[in-house]
Each structure stands twice: as structure tokens, then as C-alpha cells.
Write a structure and sequence with these properties.
The structure is a single chain. This protein is α+β, with helices and mostly antiparallel strands. It folds into three domains: 41 residues, no CATH class; 49 residues, no CATH class; 61 residues, no CATH class. It is 29% helix and 29% strand. It has six helices and ten strands, in the order αβαβααβββαββββαβ. The strands form three sheets. Strands 3-6-4-5 form a four-stranded antiparallel sheet, with helices on both faces. A four-stranded antiparallel sheet has the order 9-8-7-10, with helices on one face. A two-stranded parallel ribbon has the order 1-2. Strand 1, helix 2 and strand 2 form a beta-alpha-beta unit. Helix 2 packs antiparallel against helix 3. The longest helix has 11 residues. The radius of gyration is 18 Å and the shape is globular.
């Protein structure tokens, strides 16, 4: 996907197989294809580039939702009034890859030196949920599918269970935006 000739090669495949639509499923590919839609020889099913950019960045996602949902506190620096332990995760990433729990400022600084892209945030213990959402082209939310994430392997949620929790459904209903994607939440027990 990062090859300079990616779009050219993808268009060759699109033309050869007469592909009309692409529905990307990996977060980075969703963003890449949304940003390059005008250069592709077929339509991409997905959200606007601005929406994909927000969803691909933890910082931008938390900033977007901070006035709508109860999001974890994000620490701009480790010098703030930080309550340890804290949770550290890459700004761009998925499936719990590259995450750490730091019990002290010393630990946090070690992790941050190894990966400066880490976002330092409030640690919220408890089960983690994913809300799969699908919004149609008119901004109407058509599907909300909350799942409890049970097991992560190689950065991917490989075991999850559907849950019936009206709080999760209500969160998906709070904001009408171009939302075809996934929202991962941790609810207080």
C-alpha cells in the first residue's frame, strides 16, 4: 500500500477484473483509498477522507468525541498532574499492538523514548467493547453492532461476543456523521 505505484497497480487489477466497487477492510487501506478515490478506476465504499483521518488517529478521535462522549483523559505531557498507572498506545494503530501500561513516570518515559507516537492517557480497567456501525450515504445510521472484545491475537480481535447494552447503542446514536467503521470503547464496570 505504501509503494509509490500502488494506485497504478491497483487500477491494473481493477481494469483486468472489471471491478466496480472496493470495500476496504483494513484501517490504513480505508484511509489510503478514501484519500485517493479520485485516482481510482472504481468506487470505494467508505467514508469521507476527513472522517477516515479522524478515525485513524487516537488523538483526533478523542478530540472529536470529547464534547459528545466520556472519553479517557489524554495527557499532553508526563509533567501534568498524571495519575498512575497510565495507558500508552500509538496514535495510529489497532488491535492492542504497541500498547503499554506504565506504573510510574520513569516507566512512561522509557516507553515514550522507544515510541514517541504513543498517546498517554488515563488507564481505565475493565472489559473493552467495539461498536461496529454502518451509516448510509444520507447519514442515516443503519446498523449498530456492539461486541465485547474477548481475545486479541497478533493485533486483531479474534474472539468477540455480541452484547445487548443500551448504553452502547445510545453512544452510536449520539452523533450523526459520515460513520462507516468501528468505535472501540471501554465502559466503567
Amino acid at each position: 500500500m505504501n509503494d509509490p505505484d500502488f494506485i497504478t497497480h491497483l487500477n491494473d487489477v481493477i481494469d483486468a477484473y472489471q471491478i466496480d466497487l472496493i470495500y476496504p477492510s483494513h484501517d490504513s487501506v480505508v484511509l489510503k483509498l478514501s484519500e485517493t478515490q479520485s485516482h481510482l478506476h472504481c468506487k470505494v465504499i467508505g467514508s469521507l477522507p476527513e472522517t477516515c483521518q479522524i478515525c485513524r488517529s487516537k488523538n483526533r478521535t478523542y478530540q472529536y468525541f470529547q464534547s459528545i462522549l466520556n472519553v479517557p483523559k489524554v495527557y499532553k505531557t508526563l509533567k501534568e498532574d498524571v495519575e498512575y498507572p497510565i495507558f500508552l498506545k500509538p496514535d495510529v494503530g489497532q488491535g492492542s499492538k504497541g500498547i503499554f501500561i506504565a506504573s510510574s513516570i520513569v516507566e512512561a518515559e522509557i516507553y515514550m523514548q522507544k515510541d514517541p507516537s504513543l498517546v498517554a492517557m488515563e488507564f481505565i480497567p475493565g472489559p473493552e467493547y467495539t461498536i461496529d456501525c454502518f451509516t448510509d450515504r444520507n447519514g442515516v445510521l443503519r446498523f449498530v453492532g456492539p461486541r465485547k472484545r474477548v481475545r486479541i491475537s497478533n493485533g486483531i480481535s479474534v474472539n468477540s461476543h455480541p452484547v445487548n447494552d443500551t448504553r452502547l447503542d445510545q453512544m452510536a446514536e449520539l452523533e450523526r456523521w459520515d460513520c462507516t467503521g468501528i468505535l472501540v470503547l471501554i465502559l466503567p464496570s
